[in-house]
Amino acid sequence: QVQLVESGGGLVQAGGSLTLSCAASGRVLAISEMGWYRQAPGEEREWVALITRDGTSSVTDSVKGRFTITRDIAENTVDLQMNSVKPDDTAVYYCFARVPLFGSNTFWGQGTLVTVSS
C-alpha cells in the first residue's frame, strides 16, 4: 500500500504564496509519478500538476508560470509551490501517486484546503 498525507493548506491573500507538501509512505519504491488534483465547490476535479521519478514535471495551463511542482526522492515528498495565487485557486488539493503494477493503481491523500481571499 501507499499512504499519502498532504500538508500546508490554509488561508492566503490573493497575490501571495503557499507551499503544499505531500508525504508518501509504504511502498514508495513502486511509485512512478506523483502530482496534484484540485476540486472547487460545484466543480469537477481538475488535474493541476505532475512529476515523474526522474523529475520531469508539467502543470495545467491555468497555473502555468505560477505553480511549480518538485520532488525530494530521499524524503519521499512532493511539493507544490503556489505563487501569485488567485481566488480561483481556492479548492481542496489532493495529492496522488501512481503505481504501475499489475492493475496500475492510483492512490490519493485526504486533501488539504487552500482558501485564497480577495
Description:
The chain has 118 residues and is mainly β. The protein contains no helices and eleven strands. The chain has strands at residues 2-7, 10-13, 18-26, 33-39, 46-52, 57-59, 67-72, 77-82, 91-99, 105-108, 112-117. The termini are far apart.
Give keywords.
118 residues, mainly beta, 7-stranded mixed sheet, globular
Q: Tally of extended strands? A: 11
Question: In percent, how much strand structure appears in the residues?
Answer: over 45%
Total of helices: 0
Helix content, binned percent: under 10%
Mean pLDDT: 96
| Secondary structure category | mainly beta
How far is the first residue's CA from the last residue's CA?
40 Å
Shape: globular
Unreliable spans are none
Radius of gyration: 14 Å
| Helix and strand pattern | EEEEEEEEEEE
Largest sheet: 7 strands, mixed
